Amino acid sequence: MAYRFLDEYKQEFGLRWLFKKLHIHPNAYYNYLRNAKVGYLAQKSHCCQRIQALYHDSHGVMWYRKMKAFLQREGISLSKTTVHRYMNRELQLHSICR
């Protein structure tokens, strides 16, 4: 929302002044302009879908280290901490210990 405000009033006030008053870093605004996170979010969504599918196929037994190995076999390269974060924090998938 702040970025749209910047777009509307940048000619009137100037970008540097608006950055200073709104406490926005210039890099954040320029990333917004070129939509830098679109590719990252698409890749993250694909990875989360695969994690969810593999988790449910294994009936909730697969833990993050094993999940990383299965993803690696499919050509998805993620660190074990990233897989752990996706599973536990974002997807709320916890392995069942038997």
Your description of this structure?
There is one protein chain. This protein has 98 residues and is mostly helical. It has two domains: 2-34, no CATH class; 39-90. 72% of the residues lie in helices and 0% in strands. The chain contains six helices and no strands. Helix 1 crosses helix 2 and helix 5 (64-73) packs across helix 6 (80-90). The longest helix has 21 residues, at 37-57. It is elongated.
What's the structural blueprint in terms of helices and strands?
Elements: H1 2-13, H2 15-22, H3 26-34, H4 37-57, H5 64-73, H6 80-90
Helix pairs in contact: 1-2, 5-6
* Helix-strand topology string: HHHHHH
Q: State the major sheet.
A: none
Count of separate structural domains: 2
Strand content: under 5%
Secondary-structure-based class equals mainly alpha
Q: Radius of gyration from the CA trace?
A: 20 Å
Tally of strands? 0
Put the structure in a nutshell.
The chain is an all-alpha fold. The protein has helices spanning 2-13, 15-22, 26-34, 37-57, 64-73, 80-90. The termini are far apart.
Write a concise keyword list for the protein shown above.
98 residues; mainly alpha
